Amino acid sequence: MNGSNFFGEFQIQLHGPAKNLKGLFNNPNKRIEIECDFQLRNREREYILENCRELLEETIWHGVLPEAFQWGGYRKASFSTQFRDRQPEVDEKMEEKLPELLREVESSFVTGGIRIDESGHVDVMPSILLELAFSNYRPRHIGVVDFHGAQRHYGRELVQGINLNLDQQNQNYSQHALYNYNNKYANVKSEMAGNYIKELLSEKASSEKCSQDHTLTEALKNLFSTFFPDKEFLGPQPTADGSLSFPVRTASGSIHDLDELSSGEKEILYGYLRIRSSAPANSIILLDEPELHLNPRLIRGLPEFYREHLGETLSNQLWLVTHSDSLIREAMGKAGFNIFHMLPSTAENVEQSQLKSMSATGDLELALADLVGDLAAYRPGGKCVILEGGGDTDFDKTLLQRLFPDELRGINLVSGSNKNKVTSLHEILGRAYREGSLSTKFYAITDMDSDEVDIQAEGVGKFSWDVYHIENYLLDEEVISYVVNSMLDKPKFSVEHVLNELKKSAAEVLPGVITHRLRVHLGGLLIRSINLSFDPKIFDISEAFYEIIQMSSEKISRVVSSEATLDRIKEEQERISKDFDGIFSDNSWRSKIPGREILKRYFSSCGISANYNLFRNLVVNRMAELSRKPLGMASVLEKIAKD
């Protein structure tokens, strides 16, 4: 073992005092309990039954004389005296344990467990079958646990000293099947060269050409045709000087060596070949970040390719651990895949499973996952907050995530910018609510003065910010002063100066706000006067439309002569204007006037050659650095969290 292996990465020392196991503990004050059910495939069960005495004897010898099995070897000759002296002891243990082994083999499941208490004492649940399975490295007959970490490196390889001894290869593999993952990607060329020579020898020894279906070279050629159709691997080629080359031909006809492939290409080719060539069957293969080095085009077929060629073909169970939205989308809803979201180990409810299943069968979950956008960020079963204020709701989502990361843990945020998708979600929500199948709680937050949003869905909790819209929460003169001065070559704006300029900008924006509210009022009067509905049984629809248009015209005329006269319009303007009386003395200008327009007007007056979005993002970053949590936002989120 070395620093590049699994245990070294987490600073876990398997030898020495109990304190060396502290790296395993998430909470040193709580014990570790791991329990797992294993199910044997029929082929494994048959193989163990046929070879039970041989396997059991070797398993017992592992415990009686472990030094003979160091580094995966079985050096009986070097310990002949010890083997001879202790053979009766081993025979006695075999007769004692054989009935228990046969009983466990015939059972549907075998349970393994381990407990490590706070002091580091390890207690393992006894199981002779699991002891046998993990003591005897025979991956083509008995399943193994094969771990492939995220720190994969593919170096250049000089082919020399080819070894045709498969037993020695198996001994080497057995030492890094679980933990020493860096060694797994070495010697791929040497392995192909060894297979090439063995195939030549087989052809010389028999009249029939040996089958090419399952060789390493053929697997590599199939990979090229699947992922890199513009390239062709020609297989190991003998050269005039007696060596082997490994050429790849491109679409233009040029030739380059296998080592010249990109990191992404090697990730697919070498990664797959390493697993495939060791040929573990009936095993559990753990792949950490299989999308490493890959662009989205290469990710597209990866899960299905692994499932077909490593899962189904070899009867393996694959665990792909990823943060990639693209990879999750490739597997979502497809046969043969189960997708789980893993919650942090610090989850508040210790009784709650860290794994939450993501199902693609429900319309609601599919629609919600699609709206969240990044499936890696989707929290199945978590509360959902839909931001339906007017304007840039994608920014609303970003602002909430930056200022309230802890409060939003486990909550799905959905931007309302895609109106069609949100409308579809509302329809699905209403149907789920009426059917009583709404397991997730949904909430919608709108701007205080939003007149564009009409939330129709049943079962949705409705809240609004206590300001005109969410960007009003950015009107913090101390933060803005810091940001503006950091964008200038020479700081020149004091906090007091910034406050005065913000008020000035708000005063300049105010007439537009009054105009907008007056326009909404008058537009509503006219729109309510128009009605183009008529009895669908009427035969002459042209005449029907003409008549109702005349009726609407008369209604509009009555409104204009009564409610939309010049005097009434002036009265309404004065009424609206009174709502803003004293806003600068009582500080309510921060909530009643659109913050976005105030900030844009102020920033344009600063003479800084940058766009508004950059300025706005810098303000948010500064607020996050200072842990500024506006009370109006915190209040709404607290109500949602407590509901």
From TrEMBL:
<dbReference type="Pfam" id="PF14491">
    <property type="entry name" value="DUF4435"/>
</dbReference>
<dbReference type="InterPro" id="IPR051396">
    <property type="entry name" value="Bact_Antivir_Def_Nuclease"/>
</dbReference>
<feature type="domain" description="ATPase AAA-type core">
    <location>
        <begin position="258"/>
        <end position="328"/>
    </location>
</feature>
<feature type="domain" description="DUF4435">
    <location>
        <begin position="387"/>
        <end position="503"/>
    </location>
</feature>
<dbReference type="InterPro" id="IPR029492">
    <property type="entry name" value="DUF4435"/>
</dbReference>
<dbReference type="Pfam" id="PF13304">
    <property type="entry name" value="AAA_21"/>
</dbReference>
<dbReference type="GO" id="GO:0016887">
    <property type="term" value="F:ATP hydrolysis activity"/>
</dbReference>
<dbReference type="GO" id="GO:0005524">
    <property type="term" value="F:ATP binding"/>
</dbReference>
<dbReference type="InterPro" id="IPR027417">
    <property type="entry name" value="P-loop_NTPase"/>
</dbReference>
<protein>
    <submittedName>
        <fullName>Uncharacterized protein DUF4435</fullName>
    </submittedName>
</protein>
<dbReference type="InterPro" id="IPR003959">
    <property type="entry name" value="ATPase_AAA_core"/>
</dbReference>
